[in-house]
Known about the structure:
Number of helices: 7
Number of domains: 1
Structural class: mainly alpha
Radius of gyration: 17 Å
CATH topology: Four Helix Bundle (Hemerythrin (Met), subunit A)
Strand content: under 5%
CATH superfamily: CDP-alcohol phosphotransferase transmembrane (TM) domain
Largest sheet: none
Oligomer: single chain
Amino acid sequence: MLYKRRSYFDNLGRKIGKIFSKLSLSPNQWTILSLLLVIITFYFLIKGEFLIASIVFAFTAFIDMIDGAVARETKKVTKAGGYLDSIIDRVIEFIIILGLFLNNYPDFFLPIKIWLLFLLFGSFMSTYTRAAAFEKGVFKNLKGGILEHTDRLILLLLIIIFSNFSLQYASYLIVITTILANISALQRFLKVIKR
């Protein structure tokens, strides 16, 4: 959904790129830093330290935006860097969902672990439908759906924050995120089929 406000985020990205390009880290080093931070987030998630996990994950999500902004600002946009960023994005989502899976959230109609598996499926299928559409030459850059990667990161962050106060409400948010992620994958699939 945030992709619809692309011009706002492009301007924000340029400002962030100017600021963080002054540091001596390359875009790929920023990407690797986000991976290190998500591992720290995972540690606090499985310990049930949701407040600390949410703070560290907020930094992780922010750094996820920095790497591309720095690459564009420093004119170091490369296919290898884009590939690395895309892979690390999937790893980050997997690690967070695994951290949630290893906690004891209350069930909601189905066991919460089933919801989390479907969340993982929806998250990965949203990405895969885009990659498959590109590979098959149907869409050069398939966008759309209720949730993009950044939207999912925001909802995952909210789940962790809610977990600090109420595992029950966090469970509801897991269910909502799962449904939206799978609807998004379906929307992308149907968009390709229509073409």
